[in-house]
Amino acid sequence: MSTTWSDETPLRSTPTETPEPAVAGDRGLRTPAVVHLGVGGLRLAHHAVCLHEVVRRRLSDDWGLVHVELRPPGEDGLIRLDRERDHRVQLPGTSSPEFREVEVLTEFTTSADDSAAVLDVLADPATRLVTLRVSEEQEFFGLCAAPEHPAARIAHGYLVRALARRRDAGLPPFTVLSCDPVPRNGARTRDAVLELARRTDPLLADWIGRDVRFPGSLVDPTLPGGSALPFRWVVEDDFGHGRPPLEEAGAHLVTHTAPHEQLRMHLLDGARCALGLVGGTAGARTTAEALADPRVRAFLGGFLEEAASSLLHVPGVDLPGYRAAVLARLAGADEPLPRSGSAAVSAVVLPSLRQALDHYRPRRHLVLAVAVWLLTLPGSGGDARTMLRQHHALLGTLADDPHLTAELQEALVLLAAGTFDPRPTDAPEETP
After folding, report:
1. Cis peptide, bond prior to residue 221, ω within 30 of zero
2. Residue 204's pLDDT is what?
């Protein structure tokens, strides 16, 4: 898929518009069967575009989209600003911004206007799919709130109350598709909704647990606001009571998203983290500037190859092609270098290093990235054994690995000499 939603760019002032074939039907006649609950702007980069393609290709006219902006009262100025924007998609790969209108959006409302209207659209028999994008802060807030509390008007509170109305009316439940940029987002949403339901109506919780589907999804890469980058939308094919023909509009339907989450974490997120570390050491300020340095580009190529070796087969993904795409994406995005702190390194670099050590795989580029990170920590010097002992709490059992101690010392020597590419990653693998 090669189009994305732009929710930050001032669309009315864009210089170029690209005409496209007329879509089937009329916006007003399109059946609104999808409700999106979103926080903090129109987070529609993936499913809005995919549903637009369903309509544009005349695959179905039964999946119109209603966007519900979850905002508290008192933000009407921001709401009006959103309503004045044209609903269009930005096309990547052009010298100047180009946009196409999204024809699938049938209605826009906000919880600041009328919470009853939000519940009505969720409880409507025509609604078969609810997509969800909420911040972690509001997920937690909603989980802790009682149904009568104003905080329950956020996403999970709406879902529980709407599902209760549907059950009481003898209607089938809608499917809840999470689009939050967190691992296991479908399971996390299910757990939160069930916990909230159990606090008010255990029988409702049983019904939700038995009959409601909570597929997960992910966008690769995760899209920043206003991005026009190509992306893959990976969706778990676990829907009740029908779904749009998403696979015919560019989505990847899978049984589980976990392998794809690992792919993104180890390669895309890991590469961004490593680039932030090594690129900063090289004096670069942006990703493009860093990868224009042959030393950094060679390092990142080796890092990606080593990180990929820790992955099992990911169905439908060409790993060499994916690695090349990650390099091209980072080299072509003139973005500030990521700030790669301890939390990021622990989440997306150390797991790859742990697997490489456990399975005796090449890992010198992984070790070098860790060496750069350790040098940024307070009190770090040039001795590997001392650094590992000082930062044992961050490294865990990695700090006790004798192989890592020796390899980290080698990496520190290379860094002192201004070298970022230890050796080709096709060196012979060691044996246990």
Report:
1. yes
2. 98
Domain ranges of the chain: 32-255, 259-417
Question: Whole-model pTM?
Answer: 0.77
pLDDT for 196-247, tens place per residue? Answer: 999 999 999 999 999 999 999 988 765 444 444 566 889 999 999 999 999 8
Judge whether residue 132 has pLDDT over 80. Answer: yes
What is the dotted CATH code of the domain comprising 32-255? 3.40.50.720
| 133 alpha carbon, distance to own chain's centre | 10
Q: How far is CA 92 from the centre of its chain?
A: 19
175 φ/ψ angles, rounded to the nearest 5 degrees: -85, 140
What is the CATH T-level fold of the domain 259-417, as seen in this structure?
N-(1-d-carboxylethyl)-l-norvaline Dehydrogenase; domain 2 (1.10.1040)
pLDDT above 50: residue 278: yes
CA–CA dist 315, 121 (Å, integer): 37
Q: Of 156, 159, 112, whose CA–CA distance to 134 is shortest? A: 156
pLDDT in tens, 30-80: 678 999 887 644 444 567 777 777 877 777 778 888 888 776 555 544 444
